[in-house]
Specification:
- Keywords: Membrane, Transmembrane, Transmembrane helix.
- The chain has about 375 residues and is of the alpha/beta class.
- It has 2 domains: about 80 residues; about 260 residues, 3-Layer(aba) Sandwich (Rossmann fold).
- Helix content is about 45%, strand content about 10%.
- The protein contains 12 helices and 8 strands.
- Strands 4-3-2-6-7-8 form a 6-stranded mixed β-sheet, with helices on both faces. Strands 1-5 form a two-stranded antiparallel ribbon.
- Strand 2, helix 2 and strand 3 form a beta-alpha-beta unit.
- Helix 2 packs antiparallel against helix 5.
- The protein is rod-shaped, with a radius of gyration of 36 Å.
Length: about 375
């Protein structure tokens, strides 16, 4: 009796059982890998939210610093420069436009402290000994604005799509170094600001400064605008100019139309009230020129910027949500033994299927010759 087919039948059943076991192992391995893939996706796309101390909009910020002798106390200028360097400049970032001017006997474009006269397009090259450094521009500004509009201002955040997360991973972090370089340059410029040495130069063309700054604010396309003046706003003009204007030192020469330039502008006056005889009258007079929102604070109290002042640039803090690509997390989080096991299972299953094919071929009995 030929028992060869029976032997092949047993081998075939054994191989079939082995295939089932290997298939189960392979399915379990795939499930583990699928779980690793989803975990990698969660790591690559964290819950993102904006810093609660950041703005919702990019902004135009113009600062006016008064180094004139009418501020009287030398420490007032020191406090003013410290305030600008530590509470205003750090809030400016990519997408913002931040400028500072100083008060002088005649306000001109050369009165710019930072980025510096000659550093803006179309101006001559600067000769003040400082580099021309400005805030970097956003290469994908519209995409960043759209991203910011959907982010909550506090946790829990939202998980972004891969393209939006890519903005945080690749576009935002490089901006920080460029921003910091510009800010350090600006701080040096502010520290170099001094009071006029000659009495004939020690006048304050406040109205000229406000007129020029107001026109720039009015013509800007930024939706959020700030004007921050650190000054006693004493309009000390030269005697010749005063006679032409028929005004005294205590009067304000500014035209009533000045108010229209500051409509919709967040105006903050940081004032050395210890130099002002009647602070209430001071506020009343200048309220005629600055429509709401207007905030007035004393310079000597070192005002808390978080209460009423400029918040941080909208993109600041987003670099903390930078992550690696999903595939990188998947490869890193999958242990080597699992990769080896998956490869081994596939190889064994291939060999088993090949052996089963040979076993199946052996179970077929040879055909007997026909009798003639």
């Amino acid at each position: 009796m030929n028992d060869q087919p029976q032997k092949f039948g047993h081998a075939n059943r054994f191989l079939s059982l082995l295939i089932v076991v290997l298939t189960i192992c392979l399915v379990l391995t795939i499930l583990v890998q699928v779980n690793n893939w989803f975990e990698a996706d969660l790591k690559a796309r964290p819950e993102v939210f904006r810093d609660p101390k950041s703005r919702e909009e990019f902004a135009l910020v113009i600062v006016l610093i008064d180094p004139s002798g009418s501020m009287r106390q030398p420490e007032n200028l020191g406090m003013a420069k410290h305030f600008v360097n530590h509470k205003l400049i750090p809030k400016c970032g990519a997408g913002d436009k931040c400028l500072a001017y100083f008060v002088s006997n005649l306000f001109t474009p050369r009165s710019q402290v930072f980025p510096g006269w000659g550093c803006e397009a179309g101006a001559p090259e600067p000769n003040d000994g400082f580099q021309c450094l400005d805030l970097p521009k956003l290469t994908n500004e519209l995409s960043v604005i759209k991203l910011l509009s959907k982010l909550p201002s506090e946790p829990p955040g939202i998980r972004l799509g891969e393209q939006e997360q890519g903005l945080i991973n690749t576009d935002i972090p490089p901006l920080r170094d460029e921003e910091e370089a510009a800010r350090q340059n600006w701080k040096e410029r502010v520290r170099a600001l001094t009071s006029p040495q000659r009495r004939e130069d020690d006048y304050s063309d406040i109205c000229g400064a406000l007129e020029a700054i107001g026109r720039r604010l009015e013509s800007s396309t930024y939706r959020e605008k700030w004007f921050i003046a650190i000054s006693d706003l004493r309009d000390d003009v030269s005697p010749r100019t005063r006679r032409r204007a028929n005004s005294s030192n205590e009067n304000i020469r500014c035209a009533p139309e000045l108010r229209t330039h500051f409509v919709g502008v967040n105006t903050v006056l940081i004032v050395p009230f210890d130099q002002i005889e009647n602070s209430q009258e001071f506020i009343r007079r200048w309220s005629l020129f600055f429509p709401p929102p207007l905030t007035v604070h004393s310079l000597s109290t070192n005002p808390d910027d978080d209460l009423y002042l400029l918040k941080k640039n909208p993109t600041m803090g987003l670099e903390e949500f930078k992550r690696k690509p999903k595939l990188a997390y998947f490869v890193d989080d999958t242990p080597n033994w699992l990769w080896a096991a998956a490869g081994l299972l596939v190889a064994i299953m291939g060999l088993v299927l090949w052996s089963q094919r040979d076993a199946s071929a052996g179970t077929q009995a040879p055909s007997e010759p026909e009798n003639k």
